[in-house]
Amino acid sequence: MVASRKLLLAMNRKDFLRTSVFSAFALSTFGFIVKKEENFSGDCETTNDILGPFYRDNAPVRNNLINKDMEGQEVLIKGIVYGSDCSTPLKDAKVEIWHCSNKGEYDNTSDKYQHRAQWYTDENGFYSFKTLLPGKYLNGNQFRPAHIHFRVSAKNQDELISQLYFKGDPHITSDPWAKKKSAENRILPIVLEDSMGNLVVNFNIYLS
């Protein structure tokens, strides 16, 4: 009887070890959590998108892109820029944005740099831009979904060139870039974040 119990315990222990080894292999191979030098990190990297033909260098350093001559729906784009460990906020990361007007037009030539700006994150990695919701324009024979371009750079991190899209936009499913699986986490809701009806899009950025 005692010998049988010992044999059963030994078999259970082997099964447990075999299961544990397989589980660890499955997590490291297929899962979102990977152990490296006693630190855990997730699949948090913000994915890239095309730069597009309308980028202009040397946009003004400002985080309010609205002036009295503009028409459209105000929106606040905000978030935190994190480093490659998925958890450390990056101070002084440069965040550039540009987008078209609500009529689908880019300011490519004027010294006003309308709908274009750059800003630097604070000590908590936070950034924000007050701007207007962009419109849409034809790309060939179909409209591109409304989007905002981002270019983000920070010390010891890879530069990110990406785009933000808006949840519920019907043109996402036909757009060659927005419909990619890699863009899923950049299709974000426009939120009524307070009692005053102010619109907000929360876009945290993870550099690699």
Blueprint of the fold:
Layout: H1 2-30, E1 34-36, E2 39-41, E3 74-82, E4 94-98, E5 116-120, E6 126-132, E7 138-139, E8 142-143, E9 147-153, E10 160-166, E11 187-188, E12 191-192, E13 199-202, E14 205-206
Parallel strand pairs: 3-13, 3-14, 10-11
Antiparallel strand pairs: 1-2, 3-6, 4-5, 4-9, 7-8, 9-10, 12-13
How do you describe this structure in short?
The chain is α+β, with helices and mostly antiparallel strands and 208 residues long.
For the largest beta-sheet, the strand count, sense and barrel status come to: 5 strands, mixed
**Helix- and strand-based class?**
alpha+beta
* Portion in beta strands: 25-35%
* Helix residue percentage: 10-25%
Radius of gyration: 23 Å
Q: Which outline best applies?
A: globular
Number of separate strands: 14
Q: Quick one: CATH class of the largest domain?
A: Mainly Beta
Fourth CATH level, the homologous superfamily of the largest domain: Aromatic compound dioxygenase
Instruction: Kindly report the average pLDDT value.
Output: 84
Question: Architecture of the largest domain in CATH?
Answer: Sandwich
Question: Could you give the order of the helices and strands?
Answer: HEEEEEEEEEEEEEE
User: First CA to last CA: what distance?
Assistant: 59 Å
The unreliable regions are 1-42
How many helices in DSSP terms? 1
The tally of structural domains comes to 2
Quote the CATH topology of the largest domain.
Protocatechuate 3,4-Dioxygenase, subunit A
